[in-house]
Design goal:
The chain has about 280 residues and is an alpha+beta fold. It contains eleven helices and eight strands.
């Protein structure tokens, strides 16, 4: 085996972005074979990833890709351990690449997304490579695909929180501004559903159970409990379902009334709110 030169080490470093000493060790172990050395570095990344699998990855960023006609969008959350890495250019580039790959390939779920190819490597391999270079746990914690008459994105809090809103009843209007206003509402108020019809029955049952227990504890007559509990449930719907919430930009309207004022019949089909941490 010929001696590993500084030029060889620098070449591998340029190819992979790994540290000088890591590149020298990999080339030595691979007996100067660059392809083997790259594989060794990737395996090192896999080991780093495995050794940090129990670490908290509560920093990172959300990334959104929207179709030119606004009828489809994807949102991914890429997590890491520290805010410093979350602002790293390679980390941000990887997040954009993952979002673009998700948009183009339309994988069914996160596992399928990680298996998709981006160039010569899968998304999972790309993550493993960056883990090997940075030494932090990195993971895709959320992957959302949404379609509709108009899908509008909203990114808040330094890309720590992302929202997709699918609007219906658009009637050919440009509803981008309205969608962003509703996205801001969702970011700020964190509704549990679009309306009461979309709330899981288990949540409704739990709210009624809590309300009835509180009413009885207050000493109210037993024959009044059901009626009062239903009133409390309606208040819960008003506070926690999107279309019934008071619109944050105009307290004289609900979100439903605001949307209807933009264009008659405009409303929300679905939404997704994803927060880092």
């Amino acid at each position: 085996m010929s001696a590993i030169t500084a030029q060889d080490v620098n070449k591998l470093r340029t190819m992979t972005g790994a540290g000088m000493m890591d590149c020298k060790k990999a080339l030595t172990e691979a007996e100067g074979d660059f392809e083997k050395a790259i594989e060794i570095l990737r395996k090192k990344g896999q080991k780093v990833s495995a050794s940090r699998s129990d670490r908290d990855a509560k920093e990172g960023s959300v990334f959104i890709k929207v179709a030119a006609d606004s009828k489809e969008a994807v949102l991914i959350a890429l997590n890491c351990e520290t805010d410093f890495v979350g602002k790293n250019e390679e980390f941000l580039s990887l997040g954009k690449l993952i979002a673009e790959t998700a948009f183009a390939k339309k994988p069914a779920d996160t596992a399928a997304l990680l298996a998709e190819k981006a160039g010569d490597l899968t998304i999972n391999d790309k993550i493993v490579e960056l883990v090997g270079k940075i030494g932090e746990k990195i993971e895709v914690s959320e992957y959302v695909r949404m379609t509709g008459e108009a899908v509008v994105p909203y990114i808040h809090a330094g890309s720590k929180l992302g929202v997709l809103v699918s609007l219906k009843g658009v009637n050919g209007k440009d509803v981008t501004e309205a969608g962003k206003d509703v996205g801001m509402q969702i970011a700020a108020m964190n509704p549990v559903a679009v309306d009461e019809k979309n709330i899981d029955k288990a949540i409704i049952d739990k709210e009624l159970e809590i309300a009835k227990a509180m009413i009885l504890a207050e000493g109210k007559p037993e024959n009044m409990v059901e009626k009062i509990a239903q009133g409390k449930l309606q208040k819960f719907f008003k506070d926690n379902t999107l279309v019934h919430q008071i619109f944050v930009k105009d307290n004289s309207k609900t979100v439903a009334q605001y949307l209807d004022s933009v264009t008659k019949g405009l409303t929300v089909a679905e939404f997704k709110r994803v927060a880092i941490g």
